[in-house]
Design a protein that fits this description.
Largest sheet: 8 strands, antiparallel, barrel
Protein name: UPF0311 protein XH99_33775
Strand content: over 45%
Helix content: under 10%
Shape: globular
Pfam family, one: DUF3237
CATH architecture: Beta Barrel
Number of domains: 1
Number of helices: 1
Number of strands: 9
Organism: Bradyrhizobium nanningense
Family: Belongs to the UPF0311 family.
Length: 153
């Protein structure tokens, strides 16, 4: 017997609009940053809006590796609220990461930005989100983060 083959299937895209970065400073393990999530949209197999609360809590390590942990929610077009915890990492050439920090455009293909979103909801129609593993491929822009969410089959 062999183990099942891993495959993924694109499901939806989350576009999270972000506010101004708040920096707590060097904490001993890196620079702690908090980036408010102020809205956005969900498009694809699920559609809706990102609710205007939550944040991405980041630690920028000395080698510029960025650990990410975002907590927020979205509401589907049919009224279901889905809580999201999205952990991941962003890494790339230092000069490009510095440009991103300054809000300058960088080709997303040049930055490794991957996440593992987990979803929670009490709405029966969307319980399947809690019964699967998802991975995300993301891109950071000056005013938003765009995450293509894929279901691991």
């Amino acid at each position: 017997m062999t183990t099942p083959t891993l495959e993924t299937k694109y499901v939806f895209t989350i576009t999270a609009k972000i506010g101004d970065v708040v920096t707590a400073g060097e904490t001993g393990i890196g620079v702690r940053r908090i980036i408010p999530i102020i809205g956005g949209e969900v498009e694809g197999a699920i559609s809706g809006k990102v609710l205007p609360f939550g944040a991405d809590f980041q630690t920028i390590r000395p080698n510029e590796l960025i650990d990410l942990e975002a907590k927020y929610a979205f509401e589907t077009d049919d009224g279901a609220v889905v809580y999201v915890e999205n952990k991941g990492m962003r890494f790339g050439p230092v000069e490009l990461l510095q440009k991103l920090k300054r809000g300058e455009p960088v080709d997303p293909k040049l930055i490794y930005f991957r996440t593992v979103p987990k979803f929670e909801t009490g709405h029966e129609k969307y319980r399947w989100l809690m019964e699967h593993i998802f991975v995300g491929s993301a891109a950071r822009h000056a005013d938003r983060v765009v995450i293509d969410v894929h279901q691991v089959m």
